[in-house]
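job 3f2a | input accepted
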Amino acid sequence: SSDLPELRRGITELDGEGEVAGGVVLMRFGGNALATIDRVKEKLESLKAGLPEGVEIVPVYDRSGLINSAIDTLKVKLIEESIVVALVCVIFLLHFRSAFVAIFTLPVGILMAIIVMNFQGLNANIMSLGGIAIAIGAMIDAAIVMIENAHKQLEKEGGTKDHWLIITIAAKQVGPALFFSLLIITFSFLPIFTLQAQEGRLFQPLAFTKTYSMAAAALLAVTLVPVMMGYFIKTTLLPELWSRKKQRLVSVGVSALIFLLFWLISALFPMSVLGAFGISIAIFMGALTLLLLWPQEIKPENRNPVNRFLIWVYRPVIRWVLHHKAVTMALAVLVVLTLLPFRSMVVEKLPEGPIRTLAGKMDRFFPLEKIGGEFMPPLYEGDLLYMPSTFPGISITKARELLQQTDKIIKSFPEVERVFGKIGRADTATDPAPLSMIETTIMLKPQEEWREVPVERFFSGWPGFIRTPLAKIWPEKRVITPKELMDEMNRAIQLPGVTNAWTMPIKTRIDMLATGIKTPVGIKIMGDNLDTLAVLGEKIEAVVRQIPGTLSVYSERVVGGYYLDYNIDRRAAARYGLTVGDVQDVIQSAIGGMNVTETVEGLERYPVNVRYSREFRDSIPKLKRILIATPTGAQIPIAQVANISISQGPPVIKSENSRMSAWIYVDLAGIDIATYVQNAREVIANEINLPPGYNIVWSGQYEYMERANKRLAVVVPITLLVIFLLLYFNFRNVSEAIIVMLSLPFAIVGGIWFIYMLGYNMSIAVGVGFIALAGVSAEIGVLVLIYIDHAYEERLLAGRMNTKEDLYDAFIEGTSERVRPIMMTVTAIIAGLLPLFWGHGAGADTMRRIAAPMIGGMVSSTILTLIVIPAIYAAVKGRSLSRNKKEERDA
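job 3f2a | predicted structure (891 res):
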C-alpha cells in the first residue's frame, strides 16, 4: 500500500439534507441500456435485505424513464401513421380490398426492417424507430401507384382480356420506374452514413432503418404487390357466379365465425396476448374479414368523386400552363430565387440611400439568411443537470456549505422529485473534477404533476358569460414548461462567485466526452504561457458577457490555485544535522498526513492515516511553529530551516495538440448557436488583440455543427450525382433526367420557407429531413414523366401526334387523367409525417425537425412539379416534334 494519504477531494449530497455516499454504474460499451438498468434494479432489490439498519440505497438517476418514454412515443406515432395512410388509400380508391393490398405492405416491410435491425444489433431507440417512421409514407408509394394503374387498366380493358394478364400489364408499365424511384430514395440517404463522431452515432441508426424499410418496400413492390393485386383487386373474392345476396350472406357468416373463433381463443387462454385484448382483436378480425369478402365494385375514375374533383381543379390549370410555358417557367425561377442569400449578396453591398432601403424591404422575401443554425434541437430528457462553476481555491468546508445550499433551493420547487449534488471528484481516475465544479442531477416529477400557470387567450378580456364556456374548451392555464422551470431555478440561485449553467444529464456527458465543453458554446484559447492565457481569458470573458444572447460566461482560472510552499534552507538544516528528506518527512506526516498502518475489518482493509489536528495547522504562524526533532534530541521550529509561504499557480493545466489552453464556457439564451458565434467572432476580433502564437478555437456544439456541415458539403453533391445517374439509367435520356432533378430546388423552396415560418433553426436533424426530401421529390418527378410518356407513346402509335395541340392533349391526358396516383402518393407521404410533426414527448422535437422540411418541401414540390415540369417537358418535346416533322417534309 502507498504511504501517501487518501485525501478527500469531493462531496455528495442528497435533497439538501446532508452528505451521502454515492456510486455510479458504468455499462459496458455496446450494452443494452434498458436491459442493464433493469438488471441493476433487480440486484439492488436483492441487496436491500443485507443492509445495516438505517442504511438504504436510493436511485438518484437512471435513463430508463427517457428510453421508455421515447420508444412509447415512436410506437404510438408508427400506429397513427399507419392508420392515417390506410385512410388515405381508402378515400382515394373507394375500394377496401385495393387499399388492403397497399396497407398490408406496411407491416410486412416494417417487420423485414426490424428483423434486419435485430441481426445487425441495432437497439430500438428514438433514431432507429424514427427512421421507420419517416419512411412509412414513402414505403407505400409504389404499392399505391401500381394499384391505381391496375384500376386504370381494369377500367380500360376489363372484360376483354384475362384478369391476370391485365394485372401483369399494369405492373410492367410502372414497376421498373417505381423500383428505380425507391432505389433513389434509398441512395439519397448515403450522406448520413458518412457522418462522423457524435452526429454519426446519432443519425446512422435512423439511416440504417430507413434504408432497410425502403429496400423492403422496393422488394415487395416487384414481388408481393403484383400477386396480391391479382387476388384482391376484384369485385368479389367469392365465386362470381353466386348472386350478390348469397355473397353478402356468406361474407357476414364467415366474419361472424372468425369473430367467434378469436373470442373463444381469448376465453380459453386468458393469460395470452389474445386473452388480454380478446374482444378488441375478435371485433377487428371479424370486421376485416367482412370488408375483404363483401362484394365491392371497382368504381371507374369518372364515378370517383375524389378523382373528379382533382381533374376539375387541375385540368384548366395545366391547359393554361401549356399555352403559357415561358410565363410559368419565369415564375418558377422567381420562386427558386428566393433561396438566394439576398442580404449579403445585394443589400449589404449597396451604398446608403433609397435603393438600399427598398432592397432591405425586399429582403423579407428571402428567408435563408434569417434562419439560425444549431447542432441539434434540444432533447428534453425528463431530468435536469445544474453545473455551476466557482473560482478555484474553495475549501472543502465552503464547498459542502455551497452544495447543500443550492440543493435545498432546488428541492424547494414542487416539480422536483429528488436532487443529488456532487462537488469535486470521486475516488476514481474516471472523474477528474476540481472542487470548483458542481454537478447536481435533478430528477423531476411527471409533467402532469407540475404547476399550472395562467395563459392569455383571445377571449380573456371578454364578458364572463362568454368567457366561462370558452375557458372550458381552451383553459386559461397551462403546465409550466421545462425552460420556464429552469429560468425560475436560475433566478432563485444567484450566489456570489457562482456562475450557473443548466443542461441535461445525457447531453452533457456526451458533450464533455467529445470536446470537454459542458455549455453550447466553448472558446479555447491556445498558447504557450499560462499567465498570458489567464489574462486573455479574463478579457474575452468580459467582452463576451456584453454580447446579446449571452446567458452566462465563465473563464477557467488557469493560474488561480493556491499552493503552500516550503522552501527548505539546506545550510540551516545542515547546521542542525538535518537533511532535506528529514524536513520533508515532517511536512508530509504532520501536515499532509501519512498512512502508518492498516486495520482489518472482516475481509476488508482500511489504511490508518495520522497527521496533526486542524488547530495546529490552520494558519501560517501555527505551521511555522511545528517542531522538528534533530539528531541531538533537540526540537526546533520548522521556520528555522524552511521559509513557508502561500503562492498562486495553475489549479489544472489543460493542453491540446501539445499546446496549453484556457477554456471559456458560454451559455446562451434566446439566440441560435451559429448566429451567436458569428457575432462573437466579430466582436472578439475587433476588441481583443491576440499575441503572436496564440489563437482561438470555437468548440462545444458549434464544433460538431461545423464538422457535420463540412462533411455534408462534400458528400451531398456526390449523392446528387448518383441520383442523376440512376435517373439516366431509368429514362435512358439526359434531358428527362435533368428535368426530374429540377424537382429538387422546387422541394427545397418549400422546405426552407416552412422551416422559416415555424421559427426552427437549421440543424443536423433538419438536414436529414432535406436529404430524405430529395429522394421523395425525385420520385414525384419520375411519376409525372412516366405518365406523360405513356400518353405520348399511345398517341404516337395511334398516329395522333401531328401538331402542338396533339402534344398538349397528350400532356393534359398524362397529367390530369393521372393526377389521382400522384396526389395519392403525395398525400400518403405528408399524412404519414403529420403524426410526427404534431407529436409531443421525448424525442418529438427531433422528429418534428426531420418532418418539417419534408412536409413543406412536398407541398411546394408537388405544386411546382405538376405545373412547371410539364411546361419544361412540353418545350423539349415540342422542339423534338418540330424537328421530326421538318425531317419528314425534307425526306
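job 3f2a | Residues 259 and 702 are 58 Å apart (CA to CA).
job 3f2a | closed
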